[in-house]
Amino acid sequence: MRVIIVGGGIAGLSTAWALQKAGAEVVVLEQGPLPNPVGSSVDDHRLIRYPYGTRLGFTRMVAEAYAAWDEMWSDLGECHYVETGTLVLGGPSHADNRATVDTLAKIGLREGHAVEWLTEADLARDYPLLEEAAIASGGYRLSSGGALRCGRIIQSLARHLAFTGLDIRPHSPVIAVDPVGGEVRLASGERLGGDAWSWRRGRG
Q: What percent of the chain has pLDDT above 70?
């Protein structure tokens, strides 16, 4: 299968990584440099955590996401995840937080990810930089959760994919996509065809 991916941000490059591992022939087209400084996924960090409100499906997918990231770190030979734990303000009387904790209980989080309810005094002791008004109703924390260093992930992925021979083309803006014919047209006039494609709207 030949796949044309438009956009070399975190979504485009991670999709390319997964497709290449599945045996596909992949071409990544990025309108600017890699990483693209005006892209939407080159900031320093994005959060990954288990609490997702009452959305049980999202909550269950977090474990799968962690497994996928671990597989990527293994391939890259470096890890760009910082474990920080998760802190949520609002104690048991907070309806949304109570519902979130009930959702977490449904997925049977393993030991080490159990919810720890915190009083105002606990928060004042452990997080002295928080304002008094913010901690008045307490909160809860989990040992799981942290930050993904997106900009560094893109840099590492681009290097890794280029080293493995994947066709990555920076400075290759796409001006048209033909979803019926499975073809893209570049600003240079070149046309590329594929059997499938992934197009994420964004700035990079």
A: 93
Q: What is the pTM of this model?
A: 0.85
Alpha carbons 29 and 150: distance in angstroms, whole number? 19
Domains of the chain (ranges, CATH numbers):
1-43+152-204 (3.50.50.60), 45-148 (no CATH)
b/e code 59-92 from CB counts within 10 Å (16+ = b): beebeeeeeebeebeeebeebbbeeeebbbbbbe
> Quick check: 133 pLDDT over 60?
yes
What is the rounded distance in angstroms from the CA atom of residue 78 to the CA atom of residue 72?
9
Give the other-Cβ count within 10 Å of 164's Cβ: 11
